[in-house]
Amino acid sequence: MIEVRNLNKEFDGVQVLKGIDATFENGKTSLVIGTSGSGKTVFLKCLLGLIQPEKGDIIYDGQIYNEMSGDEKRDLKKDIGMVFQGSALFDSSTVEENVMFPLKMFTNQSYEEKIERVNFVLDRVNLENANKKFPAELSGGMQKRVAIARAIVMNPKYLFCDEPNSGLDPKTSTVIDNLIQEITKEYNITTIINSHDMNSVMEIGEKIILLKHGVKEWEGTNDEVFKTDNESLVDFVYSSNLFKKVREAQLKQDNSGS
Ligand SMILES: Nc1ncnc2c1ncn2[C@@H]1O[C@H](COP(=O)(O)OP(=O)(O)OP(=O)(O)O)[C@@H](O)[C@H]1O
Q1: 11 CB near ligand 1 (under 6 Å)
Q2: Residue 71: which residues within 8 A CB-CB, separation 6 or more?
Q3: Which residues belong to any copy of the ABC transporter domain (predicted)?
Q4: What's the CATH architecture for 2-225?
Q5: 34, 79, 207, 232: which is deepest, by most CB within 10 A?
Q6: Within 10 A of 145 (CB to CB), how many other CB atoms are there?
Protein backbone atom coordinates (compact mmCIF):
# COMPACT_ATOMS: atom_id res chain seq x y z
CA MET A 1 0.00 0.00 0.00
CA ILE A 2 1.18 3.51 -0.78
CA GLU A 3 -0.14 6.52 1.07
CA VAL A 4 0.47 10.04 -0.14
CA ARG A 5 -0.12 12.89 2.30
CA ASN A 6 -0.27 16.57 1.42
CA LEU A 7 2.21 16.26 -1.46
CA ASN A 8 3.44 19.61 -2.77
CA LYS A 9 5.92 20.28 -5.54
CA GLU A 10 6.92 23.51 -7.22
CA PHE A 11 9.31 24.48 -9.99
CA ASP A 12 10.70 28.03 -10.01
CA GLY A 13 7.90 29.30 -7.80
CA VAL A 14 5.16 27.61 -9.85
CA GLN A 15 3.29 25.01 -7.84
CA VAL A 16 2.58 21.90 -9.94
CA LEU A 17 1.36 19.56 -7.16
CA LYS A 18 -0.91 21.14 -4.60
CA GLY A 19 -1.53 19.16 -1.43
CA ILE A 20 -2.30 15.75 -2.95
CA ASP A 21 -3.69 13.11 -0.57
CA ALA A 22 -4.21 9.59 -1.90
CA THR A 23 -4.10 5.93 -0.91
CA PHE A 24 -3.18 3.15 -3.31
CA GLU A 25 -3.98 -0.38 -2.18
CA ASN A 26 -2.16 -3.58 -3.03
CA GLY A 27 -3.81 -5.96 -5.46
CA LYS A 28 -5.51 -3.01 -7.12
CA THR A 29 -4.85 -1.11 -10.33
CA SER A 30 -5.11 2.63 -9.73
CA LEU A 31 -5.11 5.16 -12.52
CA VAL A 32 -3.95 8.76 -12.31
CA ILE A 33 -5.62 10.68 -15.09
CA GLY A 34 -5.74 14.27 -16.23
CA THR A 35 -5.05 16.49 -19.21
CA SER A 36 -1.56 17.26 -20.41
CA GLY A 37 0.35 19.30 -17.86
CA SER A 38 -1.92 18.40 -14.93
CA GLY A 39 0.99 16.94 -12.95
CA LYS A 40 0.76 13.17 -13.54
CA THR A 41 4.41 12.65 -14.45
CA VAL A 42 5.68 14.87 -11.65
CA PHE A 43 3.48 12.88 -9.24
CA LEU A 44 4.91 9.56 -10.48
CA LYS A 45 8.47 10.92 -10.32
CA CYS A 46 7.88 11.94 -6.69
CA LEU A 47 6.72 8.38 -5.92
CA LEU A 48 9.82 7.00 -7.64
CA GLY A 49 12.06 9.28 -5.56
CA LEU A 50 13.33 11.00 -8.73
CA ILE A 51 11.91 14.35 -7.64
CA GLN A 52 12.01 15.66 -4.08
CA PRO A 53 8.72 17.32 -3.05
CA GLU A 54 8.91 20.46 -0.88
CA LYS A 55 6.19 19.25 1.43
CA GLY A 56 4.29 16.06 2.20
CA ASP A 57 4.94 12.40 2.82
CA ILE A 58 4.99 9.28 0.70
CA ILE A 59 4.52 6.18 2.82
CA TYR A 60 5.37 2.73 1.46
CA ASP A 61 3.71 0.04 3.56
CA GLY A 62 4.00 2.15 6.69
CA GLN A 63 7.51 3.44 5.99
CA ILE A 64 7.84 7.18 5.41
CA TYR A 65 10.20 7.73 2.45
CA ASN A 66 11.83 10.83 3.91
CA GLU A 67 12.66 8.96 7.12
CA MET A 68 14.27 5.97 5.37
CA SER A 69 18.03 5.43 5.54
CA GLY A 70 20.07 5.23 2.32
CA ASP A 71 20.03 1.41 2.55
CA GLU A 72 16.27 1.35 3.04
CA LYS A 73 15.80 3.61 0.00
CA ARG A 74 18.02 1.29 -2.07
CA ASP A 75 15.97 -1.70 -0.89
CA LEU A 76 12.78 0.12 -1.81
CA LYS A 77 14.08 0.62 -5.36
CA LYS A 78 14.30 -3.18 -5.72
CA ASP A 79 10.63 -3.39 -4.79
CA ILE A 80 9.55 -0.98 -7.55
CA GLY A 81 8.90 -2.12 -11.12
CA MET A 82 8.52 0.52 -13.81
CA VAL A 83 7.00 0.38 -17.28
CA PHE A 84 8.11 3.50 -19.12
CA GLN A 85 6.29 5.30 -21.87
CA GLY A 86 7.53 3.80 -25.18
CA SER A 87 8.83 0.66 -23.39
CA ALA A 88 12.44 2.01 -23.05
CA LEU A 89 14.10 -1.29 -23.96
CA PHE A 90 17.82 -1.53 -24.73
CA ASP A 91 17.83 -1.81 -28.54
CA SER A 92 21.14 -3.61 -28.85
CA SER A 93 20.24 -6.24 -26.22
CA THR A 94 18.06 -9.29 -26.75
CA VAL A 95 14.72 -9.74 -25.00
CA GLU A 96 16.39 -12.11 -22.54
CA GLU A 97 19.16 -9.61 -21.74
CA ASN A 98 16.65 -6.78 -21.32
CA VAL A 99 14.58 -8.75 -18.84
CA MET A 100 17.66 -10.04 -17.00
CA PHE A 101 19.06 -6.54 -16.50
CA PRO A 102 17.49 -5.80 -13.06
CA LEU A 103 18.57 -9.24 -11.77
CA LYS A 104 22.17 -8.45 -12.80
CA MET A 105 21.94 -5.00 -11.18
CA PHE A 106 20.35 -5.98 -7.90
CA THR A 107 21.05 -9.67 -7.17
CA ASN A 108 23.94 -12.09 -6.85
CA GLN A 109 21.99 -14.93 -8.45
CA SER A 110 23.79 -17.47 -10.63
CA TYR A 111 23.16 -17.41 -14.38
CA GLU A 112 20.96 -20.52 -14.02
CA GLU A 113 18.81 -18.83 -11.37
CA LYS A 114 18.54 -15.66 -13.43
CA ILE A 115 17.58 -17.42 -16.66
CA GLU A 116 15.01 -19.51 -14.81
CA ARG A 117 13.36 -16.34 -13.48
CA VAL A 118 13.60 -14.62 -16.91
CA ASN A 119 11.91 -17.60 -18.59
CA PHE A 120 9.23 -17.64 -15.89
CA VAL A 121 8.26 -13.98 -16.40
CA LEU A 122 8.48 -14.20 -20.20
CA ASP A 123 6.16 -17.17 -20.00
CA ARG A 124 3.84 -15.14 -17.74
CA VAL A 125 3.51 -12.37 -20.34
CA ASN A 126 3.03 -14.97 -23.10
CA LEU A 127 6.39 -14.41 -24.80
CA GLU A 128 7.81 -17.92 -24.66
CA ASN A 129 9.82 -17.94 -27.89
CA ALA A 130 11.23 -14.44 -27.97
CA ASN A 131 14.38 -14.81 -25.79
CA LYS A 132 16.92 -14.24 -28.54
CA LYS A 133 15.01 -11.60 -30.49
CA PHE A 134 15.95 -7.92 -30.50
CA PRO A 135 13.33 -5.22 -29.68
CA ALA A 136 13.27 -4.00 -33.30
CA GLU A 137 12.06 -7.46 -34.38
CA LEU A 138 8.98 -7.22 -32.13
CA SER A 139 5.63 -5.46 -32.52
CA GLY A 140 4.77 -2.56 -30.18
CA GLY A 141 2.51 -4.84 -28.11
CA MET A 142 5.26 -7.45 -27.77
CA GLN A 143 7.78 -4.77 -26.76
CA LYS A 144 5.32 -3.68 -24.08
CA ARG A 145 5.14 -7.28 -22.82
CA VAL A 146 8.94 -7.35 -22.57
CA ALA A 147 8.80 -4.07 -20.61
CA ILE A 148 6.22 -5.61 -18.26
CA ALA A 149 8.33 -8.78 -17.88
CA ARG A 150 11.35 -6.64 -16.99
CA ALA A 151 9.27 -4.61 -14.52
CA ILE A 152 8.09 -7.71 -12.65
CA VAL A 153 11.28 -9.80 -12.83
CA MET A 154 12.33 -8.64 -9.33
CA ASN A 155 8.91 -9.60 -7.96
CA PRO A 156 8.06 -5.98 -7.09
CA LYS A 157 5.63 -4.81 -4.42
CA TYR A 158 4.92 -1.67 -6.43
CA LEU A 159 4.42 -1.30 -10.17
CA PHE A 160 4.34 2.11 -11.86
CA CYS A 161 3.37 2.49 -15.50
CA ASP A 162 3.65 5.74 -17.43
CA GLU A 163 1.20 5.77 -20.35
CA PRO A 164 1.59 2.01 -20.97
CA ASN A 165 -0.67 2.15 -24.03
CA SER A 166 0.95 4.97 -25.93
CA GLY A 167 1.42 3.95 -29.54
CA LEU A 168 -0.73 0.82 -29.30
CA ASP A 169 -3.96 0.11 -31.18
CA PRO A 170 -7.13 -0.15 -29.00
CA LYS A 171 -7.27 -3.95 -29.11
CA THR A 172 -3.62 -4.42 -28.11
CA SER A 173 -4.07 -1.71 -25.45
CA THR A 174 -6.87 -3.72 -23.88
CA VAL A 175 -4.72 -6.86 -23.87
CA ILE A 176 -1.88 -4.97 -22.16
CA ASP A 177 -4.28 -3.35 -19.66
CA ASN A 178 -5.74 -6.72 -18.75
CA LEU A 179 -2.28 -8.25 -18.42
CA ILE A 180 -1.21 -5.50 -16.00
CA GLN A 181 -4.40 -5.97 -13.99
CA GLU A 182 -4.06 -9.77 -13.87
CA ILE A 183 -0.44 -9.54 -12.70
CA THR A 184 -1.41 -6.92 -10.11
CA LYS A 185 -3.98 -9.27 -8.59
CA GLU A 186 -1.93 -12.45 -8.97
CA TYR A 187 1.11 -11.02 -7.13
CA ASN A 188 -0.81 -8.56 -4.92
CA ILE A 189 1.11 -5.58 -6.30
CA THR A 190 0.26 -1.91 -5.69
CA THR A 191 -0.04 -0.69 -9.26
CA ILE A 192 -0.31 2.95 -10.32
CA ILE A 193 -0.80 3.85 -13.97
CA ASN A 194 -0.54 7.33 -15.49
CA SER A 195 -2.94 7.54 -18.37
CA HIS A 196 -5.18 9.68 -20.49
CA ASP A 197 -6.66 6.66 -22.22
CA MET A 198 -10.39 6.50 -21.47
CA ASN A 199 -10.50 2.85 -22.54
CA SER A 200 -8.04 1.99 -19.77
CA VAL A 201 -10.01 4.06 -17.29
CA MET A 202 -13.16 2.09 -18.00
CA GLU A 203 -11.47 -1.29 -18.39
CA ILE A 204 -9.20 -1.48 -15.35
CA GLY A 205 -9.71 1.67 -13.24
CA GLU A 206 -10.47 0.12 -9.88
CA LYS A 207 -9.43 3.45 -8.42
CA ILE A 208 -9.19 6.62 -10.44
CA ILE A 209 -7.64 9.90 -9.39
CA LEU A 210 -8.19 12.94 -11.56
CA LEU A 211 -5.55 15.66 -11.37
CA LYS A 212 -6.29 19.16 -12.59
CA HIS A 213 -3.64 21.88 -12.41
CA GLY A 214 -1.89 19.85 -9.71
CA VAL A 215 -4.97 19.43 -7.50
CA LYS A 216 -6.76 16.14 -6.85
CA GLU A 217 -10.06 17.08 -8.40
CA TRP A 218 -11.94 13.77 -8.17
CA GLU A 219 -11.46 10.23 -6.90
CA GLY A 220 -13.62 7.19 -7.55
CA THR A 221 -14.01 3.91 -9.43
CA ASN A 222 -14.68 3.22 -13.10
CA ASP A 223 -18.30 2.41 -12.21
CA GLU A 224 -18.70 5.91 -10.76
CA VAL A 225 -17.20 7.77 -13.73
CA PHE A 226 -20.37 7.95 -15.81
CA LYS A 227 -22.55 8.89 -12.85
CA THR A 228 -20.42 11.76 -11.63
CA ASP A 229 -21.52 15.39 -11.56
CA ASN A 230 -17.95 16.59 -11.20
CA GLU A 231 -17.55 19.12 -13.99
CA SER A 232 -13.83 18.56 -14.51
CA LEU A 233 -14.27 14.81 -14.84
CA VAL A 234 -17.25 15.17 -17.16
CA ASP A 235 -15.16 17.62 -19.20
CA PHE A 236 -12.30 15.14 -19.38
CA VAL A 237 -14.53 12.20 -20.32
CA TYR A 238 -16.63 14.26 -22.73
CA SER A 239 -13.62 15.05 -24.86
CA SER A 240 -14.41 11.65 -26.42
CA ASN A 241 -17.69 11.53 -28.35
CA LEU A 242 -17.84 7.77 -27.92
CA PHE A 243 -17.89 8.09 -24.13
CA LYS A 244 -20.38 10.92 -24.31
CA LYS A 245 -22.78 8.53 -26.06
CA VAL A 246 -22.04 5.68 -23.65
CA ARG A 247 -22.75 7.97 -20.68
CA GLU A 248 -26.06 9.12 -22.16
CA ALA A 249 -27.09 5.51 -22.74
CA GLN A 250 -26.03 4.53 -19.22
CA LEU A 251 -27.96 7.40 -17.60
CA LYS A 252 -31.05 6.57 -19.70
CA GLN A 253 -30.83 2.93 -18.60
CA ASP A 254 -30.43 3.93 -14.92
CA ASN A 255 -33.40 6.32 -15.10
CA SER A 256 -35.67 3.78 -16.76
CA GLY A 257 -34.68 1.19 -14.13
CA SER A 258 -35.51 3.41 -11.17
N1 LIG B 1 11.68 19.69 -14.35
C2 LIG B 1 10.71 20.60 -14.49
N3 LIG B 1 10.99 21.92 -14.40
C4 LIG B 1 10.02 22.86 -14.51
N5 LIG B 1 8.72 22.57 -14.71
C6 LIG B 1 8.39 21.28 -14.82
C7 LIG B 1 9.35 20.22 -14.71
N8 LIG B 1 8.70 19.03 -14.84
C9 LIG B 1 7.40 19.33 -15.02
N10 LIG B 1 7.20 20.66 -15.01
C11 LIG B 1 5.90 21.36 -15.16
O12 LIG B 1 4.97 20.75 -14.30
C13 LIG B 1 3.67 20.71 -14.87
C14 LIG B 1 3.13 19.28 -14.84
O15 LIG B 1 3.89 18.49 -15.76
P16 LIG B 1 3.68 16.92 -15.94
O17 LIG B 1 4.77 16.47 -16.87
O18 LIG B 1 3.61 16.26 -14.62
O19 LIG B 1 2.28 16.85 -16.67
P20 LIG B 1 1.51 15.54 -17.19
O21 LIG B 1 0.16 15.57 -16.56
O22 LIG B 1 2.34 14.34 -16.96
O23 LIG B 1 1.38 15.85 -18.74
P24 LIG B 1 1.43 14.81 -20.00
O25 LIG B 1 0.11 14.10 -20.00
O26 LIG B 1 1.58 15.73 -21.17
O27 LIG B 1 2.61 13.90 -19.81
C28 LIG B 1 3.83 21.27 -16.28
O29 LIG B 1 3.41 22.60 -16.27
C30 LIG B 1 5.30 21.18 -16.55
O31 LIG B 1 5.74 22.18 -17.43
Answers
A1: yes
A2: none
A3: 2-238
A4: 3-Layer(aba) Sandwich (3.40)
A5: 34
A6: 25
| Span 151-166, average pLDDT | 93
- pTM, two decimals, is 0.91
Mutation test residue for ligand 1: of 42, 44, 52, the one with most atoms within 8 Å of CB: 42
Find the helix packing angle between 241-257 and 231-238, rounded to 10°. Answer: 120
Q: Is the ipTM of this complex over 0.85?
A: yes
Please indicate whether residue 42, judged by its CB atom, sits closer than 6 Å to ligand 1: yes
Local confidence band at 258 (pLDDT 50, 70, 90 cut-offs): low
Cα of 63 from ligand 1 centre, angstroms: 27
Residue 234 pLDDT class (50, 70, 90 cuts): confident
